[in-house]
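Protein: Aldo/keto reductase
Species: Roseburia porci
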Amino acid sequence: METFKLYNGVDMPCIGFGTDRTFVFIRKNILAGMVDFLKDITIGHGYHWKRDTSIIKIVKKAPQYDCHLFDTSSAYGQSERVLGKCLKKYSRDEYFIVTKLSNQEQREGDVRKALMRSLKHLNVDCVDLYLMHWPQTDTYLECWKQMEQLYKEGLARAIGVCNFKEHHFEELMKSAEIKPMVCQIESHPLFSQNKMLKYCKKNSIQMMAYTPTGRMDKRIRESEVLRTIAEIHHKDVAQVIMRWHYQRGVIPIANTTNLEHLQSNMNIFDFCLEQSEMESIDNMNIECRLRYDPDTVDFTKC
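Structure follows.
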């Protein structure tokens, strides 16, 4: 797996797998967990059960298919536990773990406690990258100071942020001692975030992309631009998009419940997009955000 080097010298895989929210492990409240499970297998036709078990299968196999970067969050249900259980058969240097400080944990105010809980669930002594999930008003500045201390102690090899806009960075840097090493934001052909990418590159911040294929929105799935490029390179549309991210210097985090799709997402290093093709994909941008806007979101619901 090829890597991008963060400004502090840490090598980070250039593409990764996002676990999203999972439910399979029994929670501390066993009764609530069983109620959720029964609702899922009856009313929900086992959607979460099937989805979660497929994720377990994918995570166990992923390093064998050259996927070594795993993105999760304490806000994603039992996702950290899934990773901790599934990756324990691999040596620690075979995978790169990213987890996040949730908004609820920001409100609780004890970042050390939050990270230690995540480390226990992940079954590791330190995370490779610890991110602040959202720039929650009134909490993110103080929480960043605590993250800096945890980084200094070696509990995280790198620290960064998610869902920041330029004004959040400017406010943070008024009091920060350590500049974020990574910024994870929504980015895909309908919402390229090229302005934020330029800002990140100017400030030596590595950009990551979630929702990198735009959830295969119809406007992406049926795009003549993407279809034509895919045919030229004998690839599918998702592979073209993942390659577009890579050539921009962005780390895409893809989510799938299909092992074949994971293999396909990783198979983007045997072709190269021409500059004209890169520009054609850039021109698809219509500033269409598919997820929450950090300036307007209700932080208690994300």
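Remarks: The chain has a mean pLDDT of 94.
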